[in-house]
Amino acid sequence: MKKFLRNLLAPGALCLLLCLAACAGTPEDAPEPGPPETLSGRVYVPEFARAETGADYVQSACISGGTVCLAGAVSREVEEINPETGEPYTYQIPSAALFQGGTEGGPYTRSADYYPEEFLEGAEGSVFSMGCFPGGEGTVWLSTSATPWNDQPSRHILQRFDRQGRELERIDLGALPAELSADEITGTLADQEGRLYVAAGDRALIFDGGERPPLTLDGRGLTGRVPGEWNPLILLSDGRAAVRCAGSGDPGGTGDTLLSIDLEAGAWGDSYLLPINCGGVWSGGGEFLFFCSSGDALYGYRTGEQRLDRLLSWTDVDINSDSLLALSVLEDGRLAAVVEESGAETVVLTPTDPASLPEKSTVSYATLGLRREVRSAIVAFNKAHPDCRVEVRDYSELNTAGDRTAGLTRLHTEILAGNVPDLLDTAGLPVRQYGRRGLLEDLLPYIRSDPDLGPEALMERVAEAAAQDGKLYQAFPSFTILTAAGRPELVGDRLRWTLADLAEAMKAMPEGGTALGAGREETLELLLPMMLDSFVDRDAGAASFDGEAFRALLEFCAACPAPEDGESPYTRTQEGRQLLLPAELGTLEWEFILYPTAFSGKCSFVGYPREDGGAGSCFRLGDGVSMTAACRNKEAAWTFVRETFLPQYPTGTYFGSAYPINRADFDRMMAQAAAPELDENGQPAGASSSFLILPDDSLTIPGRKPSREELEQFTALYDAVDQVYDPDEKLLSIVREGAGAYFAGDKSLADTVRLIQNRASLYLSENQ
Q1: What burial letters (b/e) apply to 223-259, b meaning 16+ CB within 10 Å?
Q2: Could you please report the per-residue DSSP string of 40-52?
Q3: Which residues contact 449 (CB under 8 A, 6 or more apart)?
Q4: Helix H or strand E segment including 348
Q5: DSSP structure string for 529-586
Q6: pLDDT confidence of residue 750
Q7: Do 641 and 635 meet the contact criterion of CB atoms below 8 Å apart?
Q8: Which of 402, 351, 339, 404 has its CA nearest to residue 376?
Q9: Element housing 660 (H / E)
Q10: What is the pLDDT, as a whole number, of residue 74?
Q11: Checking CA distances to 13, which of 88, 260, 395, 605 falls within 20 to 30 Å?
Q12: pLDDT per residue as tens digits for the range 670-685
C-alpha cells in the first residue's frame, strides 16, 4: 500500500478525474437481473455474536481481512460555566469513535489514535463518521466530516488504521490538488494498489500518486444512491472500482447502474444493471463480482454467466436488511455481516446442506415490498420462535425496468390459480375485494378467544367500520381519520353534510373563493372517494352514476377555480378565501392545534359531503396483514398476526403519526395529551410560549397541549365515523377518465354521465 499522504500532496501529483458523461447511461447490452430463484442446494445458517463496544450507537462498519471495524459514537462529558450564576455544570455530547474486533464478537478495542475533535482546531462544532472501507492487509480507512460552528468551512479527513487501531496515514481531502469542497464529497474508496477514489458531486476523482499532470473530465449522474446511503463507490472482486449511478427515474426507464472504471483507458468500463428498487451494493468475493439487495433478497453477480443470482432471503437468516452496515466474504468462503439493532452484532453465514437442518413449520408471507417495521417484526418473530418461521415472498423482486407491476401481476395470477400464500401484506392489495370473494380468514373468532385480546382490547369503532358483513379480514396496527376542517361560522359545528349543504356554504365565499383550494380534477379526487359507495350496489353488481346526485357532483367540481400557483392554503383560509382544509388526523398534539390556528381560533371537522347521511370523515387503516382462508397452519399464522393488535407502548410516552388500534395504547395517548405540562419540580408549567413555524411560513403554530374542548371534539368526531377509506381504484379510474373529458369541454354532461354509467355497470357486473 502506497503512502497516500506523502504522494498525493507532492508537487505534480496525478489527479485523474473521471466523469460520468451524459451519454454514459446503461448500454443496450447490459444484462438484466436474473429471476429471483434461490440457488438450489445452498442455504445459509447464521451465527450471531454481540460486539461489545460501549458505544451509544454504531453508524458504519467494514470487514477487512477478518477484522471488523465499527465507527460510531460515545458520550463525552463537557464542563461549562453558567454565565448567570458562575457555577460549573456538565452535559453529555456524542464523540466519534472507532472500534475493532473479530467476527466472533466479544470485547472490541477502541482506537486511541482516533480523536476527530482535533479536526475542529479548537472550535466548537460537530464531527461525524461518514463511513469506513477496507484498506488491504487488515487495515481500514475511516472518513470523517468535521463542521465548526464558527462559520469556518467544513473539513473531510481520511485516516487509515492498522489492526490495533494505530493511525498509519491521514489525508485532508480539501488539501488535494483538485479544488475539492468537503460539502460536495459523497464517497471515498481505496484499492489494493494504493489508489484513492473520491466521488464529489458530478465527478469521480482518482489519485494514484504518480508524477503526471492532473487530468480533469466533467460529467453527470453520480448521485444515484439509495436515500441514506452515503458512498456510491465499491471495489469489485477483480480489483476494479465501480460507481453506482442513477437510472432514468421514469416509470418505464432503467434502474440504477454499476459502472466500473477502466484505469488503462482512463474511461468507464463494463456496466452492470442493478435490480429495480435496489437497496445496498457491496464488494464481491469468490465467485461473485459484487453483491446487491432487492426486496428481501441478497443477489450475487456471477462474472462468467453475467447474471445476478438470488442467494438468500434476509429474513430467512434472521437479518433485518435495514440494519445491515457491512457485508463481506471471508477467506473460507463464508459470508460475514455487521448489523446494528440496539447494539452492533456480527453475523457469519455458513453455506449448509438443507437436508441436514431440522424441520420447522413455516408460514408464507406475500408482500409487494417489505416495509421496515414488518421486516423487523418478522425477524424478531423468527428469532423468538425456533420451531416456526415466517417465510417472505417479496413479489417486488419480479419487477423489471420494462414492467414495474410484474410482481403484482404474478401475485394475482398465483392467487387465482390456487397458489395462495398463508399471509398477505395488505399494502397495495384490494383487501376488501379479496374478502368479498372468500379468500380471507375472519380474524374476529381469533381475537375473541385470545387471552391477551378480546374485542374490548381494540378500538371498537374502527374495528366495526373495517369489518365486512360482520367479519374482520385484516389486522392493522393503527389508523388515521381523513376529514376536512372548516370555519365554524361558515360550515357550522356539524360532523356530516351533503353536497347541497356545501354549495350553500360556498355562497358566503367571496368571488374567486375555493371550496378545498383545488381545481376541478383535484376537487373530484377529494370528494369522490367519500361518496363513491352512494353510487354503487355491489350485491346487485349495479351502478347509479346516472342520477342527479352524481350530476351535481360533476357540476360542482367543474365550477371550482384552480388556486394561484405557490399560494399557501393557510393564507387563503385565514383571509377567508378557502372554505375547507383537507386533513388527515393522526395525533392529538399537532393537528388539533394546527387547524384551529388556521381558522383563527376554532374549527369544525365537518368532513366531506355524503348523500347517504353518514359522517363526512373516515378511518384510513394502517398497512397490516391478512390471513388467507387457504392458510395451511392457521394457529402458527395467528401467533404472528396477533402481534399487530397487542400493545406497542406498554409504558412511557406514545410516539407515532397515527392512532393505535390497541385500546390500552390509545387510552395512554389520550391521558398523556390531557395531562398538564409539568416543570422540573413536577408542578404545572403554565402556558407555553413556544411556537412551531410549520407547515409553512404563513402559519405560526403555538406549541401547547390540546384543550379539554379540543379533546372532546376529537372524541365526538371519532364516535361519528362509520366507514373506512378503501375506494375501488378501478371505479375511480373510470370516473376520473370520463370526467376529464367533461372538464376539458370535450363532452357534454349527459354524454359523460352515460359513458361513466355504462363502463361502471360493466365493471361491477364482471366483478360481482
Answers
A1: ebbeeeebbbbbbbbeebbbbbbbbeeeeeebbbbbb
A2: TT-EEEEEEEEEE
A3: none
A4: strand 344-352
A5: HHHGGGGEETTTTEE-TTSHHHHHHHHHHHTPPPPPTT--HHHHHHTT-B-EEEEEE-
A6: 94
A7: no
A8: 339
A9: strand 659-660
A10: 87
A11: 260
A12: 988 888 776 666 666 6
Q: Which cell goes with 294?
A: 432487492
Q: Which residues contact 358 (CB under 8 A, 6 or more apart)?
A: none
Strand, helix or coil at 3?
A: coil
Residues 391, 365 contacting (CB under 8 angstroms):
yes
**Number of C-alpha atoms within 13 angstroms, CB side, residue 746?**
7
Q: In 3D, which of 348, 344, 317, 355 has the Cα closest to residue 332?
A: 348
The strand pair at 106-107 and 43-52 is best described as parallel
Can you give the pTM of this predicted structure?
0.83
Sheet containing 278-285: give its strands across. 278-285, 288-294, 297-302, 307-313
Q: pLDDT tens digits for 138-178?
A: 889 999 888 888 878 888 899 999 988 999 999 888 777 66
Is 588 within 8 Å of 671 (Cβ atoms)? no
Q: Which among 351, 383, 349, 380 is positioned nearest to 63, based on CA atoms?
A: 349
Largest CA distance in the chain: 84
| Nearest CA-CA partner of 180 in 158, 199, 208 | 199
Give the containing element (helix H, strand E) for 528: helix 520-531
Q: What is the DSSP-derived secondary structure letter of residue 445?
A: H
Half-sphere exposure (Cβ direction) of 541: Cα atoms closer than 13 Å: 8
E strand or H helix at 491: helix 488-491
CB 261 within 8 A of CB 18: yes
How far apart, in Å, are the Cα atoms of 229 and each of 225, 300, 725? 6, 19, 35
How many Å apart are CA 397 and CA 406, to the nearest integer?
Answer: 9
Neighbours of 293 (CB within 10 A): 23
Question: Distance (Å, rounded) from C-alpha 366 to C-alpha 70?
Answer: 35
Altogether, the residues listed in the chain come to a count of: 768
How many Å apart are CA 640 and CA 638, to the nearest integer? 5
End-to-end Cα distance, the chain: 71
Partners of 187 in the β-ladder: 199
